[in-house]
């Protein structure tokens, strides 16, 4: 069975691209006991579990979810559970989970899958169209932008990752929102009070996306962006063969602590950093030393 990919709420589970894409598991359950039983069942069925959660700026509810997952892993005393915090907005996190689900059906080991999270997240362009940035605290907002957000009809295009950017729309000196230089599929989720159709009518053609899909807005998006006047979007790689090539092109190492395969500089399961290559003591001696 493929490695299980878990998320913290059902609204982070996107529809699969095809029948080969495995479903995602939702953790935690309503009580600690149900969470323990659910996680134990996943380990028994899949062998390893990769659970994604919000990394920074989490609400009290999100922090409680993370603590529950940490408690479950501690009680089960299992080294087969990877708890990975990700600095992505909710829709971007849902897209990342979908990509991992696609890759879990390939021949990657659990360690490679877990350590690929940071790599995949770097190639996700996640942002939102906002009617106000007065309560936006997840990315830097200038005092001038705060003041402009009170003007009637103000709109802001905000990119959270991979590089934060805030652009006020419908002004003479409007700058473009930086987009990917590779083919992507765009996911769009409208809030309860969408400001406009700018994302689908303007941003999608400017970014030359290879397709777009409308999905439900994750429950945490309004809190994350600080307003219900939003259209959240996330663009990323969707072709599993391209995702496979991206991950497989990175050199694999063996974790010196738990023995799993990894890519990058840190193990996704035990969080141990990649050990620096040992140098020959003789070569490390200064010139002229005995």
Written overview of the protein:
With 290 residues, the chain is α/β, with parallel strands linked by helices. The chain folds into 2 domains: 4-108; 125-236, 2-Layer Sandwich (Hypothetical Protein Tm841, Chain: A,domain 3). It has helices at 32-46, 60-76, 90-104, 110-115, 117-122, 143-148, 198-207, 221-225, 240-248, 281-284, and strands at 4-7, 25-26, 49-54, 81-86, 125-130, 156-161, 165-168, 185-190, 212-214, 230-236, 252-254, 261-263. The strands form 3 sheets. The protein has a 6-stranded mixed β-sheet with strand order 7-6-5-10-8-9, with helices on both faces. It has a 4-stranded parallel β-sheet with strand order 2-1-3-4, sandwiched between helices. Strand 6 (156-161) and strand 7 form a beta hairpin. Helix 1 crosses helix 2 (60-76). The longest helix has 17 residues, at 60-76. It starts with a strand and ends in a 6-residue tail after the last helix.
Descriptive tags:
alpha/beta, Hypothetical Protein Tm841, Chain: A,domain 3, 6-stranded mixed β-sheet, 10 helices, 19% strand, disordered C terminus
């Amino acid at each position: 069975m493929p490695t299980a990919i878990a998320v913290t709420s059902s609204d982070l589970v996107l529809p699969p691209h095809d029948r080969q894409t495995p479903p995602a598991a939702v953790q935690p359950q309503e009580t600690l006991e149900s969470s323990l039983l659910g996680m134990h069942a996943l380990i028994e069925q899949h062998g390893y579990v990769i659970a994604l959660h919000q990394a920074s700026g989490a609400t009290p509810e999100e922090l409680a979810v993370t603590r529950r997952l940490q408690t479950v892993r501690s009680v089960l005393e299992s080294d087969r559970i990877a708890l990975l915090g990700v600095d992505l907005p909710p829709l971007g996190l849902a897209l990342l989970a979908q990509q991992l689900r696609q890759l879990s059906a390939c021949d990657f080991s659990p360690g490679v899958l877990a350590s690929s999270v940071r790599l995949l997240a770097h190639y996700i362009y996640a942002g939102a169209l906002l009617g106000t940035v007065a309560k936006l605290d997840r990315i830097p907002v200038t005092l001038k932008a705060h003041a402009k957000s009170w003007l009637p009809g103000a709109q802001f295009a905000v990119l959270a990752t991979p590089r934060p950017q805030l652009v006020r729309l419908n002004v003479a000196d409007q700058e473009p929102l930086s987009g990917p230089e590779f083919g992507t599929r765009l996911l769009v989720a409208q809030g309860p009070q969408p400001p406009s159709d700018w994302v689908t009518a303007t941003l999608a053609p400017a970014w030359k996306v290879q397709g777009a899909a409308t999905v439900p807005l994750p429950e945490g998006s309004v809190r994350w962006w600080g307003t219900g006047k939003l259209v959240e979007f996330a663009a990323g790689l969707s072709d599993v063969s391209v995702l496979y090539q991206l991950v497989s092109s990175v050199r694999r190492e063996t974790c010196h602590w738990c023995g799993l395969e990894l890519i990058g500089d840190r193990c996704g399961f035990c969080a141990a950093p990649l050990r620096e290559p040992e140098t020959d003591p003789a070569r490390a001696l200064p010139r002229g030393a005995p």
